[in-house]
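Thread title: Can someone regenerate the structure for this chain?

I was given the following input by a collaborator and told the matching structure tokens would be attached. They weren't. Posting the sequence so someone can regenerate them.
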Amino acid sequence: MSARTSVPAGAPAAASACASSIVDGTVASQTARGRSSRRANSALPTAVAAIVRPNGIIAAAACCVVLLGPGRPFRRALLVMAPAAVAFVTWLTFLWRWTDDPFIFWKTKGAWDEVTILEFFRDGMEDAARPHMLMALPALAVIAFCWRRLPAHWLTFAAAYLLPSLLVGVVGLGRYVNDCFVSFIAAAMVLEKLPAWLRAAAYTVSLAGLALFSYIITYYKYVP
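Best answer:
Regenerated them for you:
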């Protein structure tokens, strides 16, 4: 089994949230375009990504990393980043007008019962944070293990998408891992090196965990 054939196993999970899947799809689909096309045809998708989620601007930055590679003109990266930056600033302007605070989304998230990674291990692994850390730590581990084989802009996207939560609050990090396609590709890279029976065991454990988590959400009204 190759990484190419292993990736679709994670695809349904990566597309679970519409806005997040737009952000993910922007980075993934624009990779080939950024490398092969002579036109800066990534501008519209990155602008859309910057509007649908606050961290969508990270998608634009990740696409710019590949466009700023050796021998590639700065103008192409600027043509991709500028519309996304304008879209993002426009969205902040609307928030400012509606709420008197352009960063109201950040303050709203601050109302959650957040736990940093240091507090998680120091204060006894709070229940609300456990599922998120259970998903995040293996994902970060496989990305770190495969970092030499992953494109620089994918690593940029994964780092900017996942690492800040470790310092500002891990509640929600499980969803970010689920949204970050890079973790699924890295996992596929690891799985393709394992014997078939270990791959089967890994998928079985994954399915069992999904079933258990679905049960917890349904019967205990747990909101991840």
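Residues 1-17, 34-40 have pLDDT under 50 and may be disordered.
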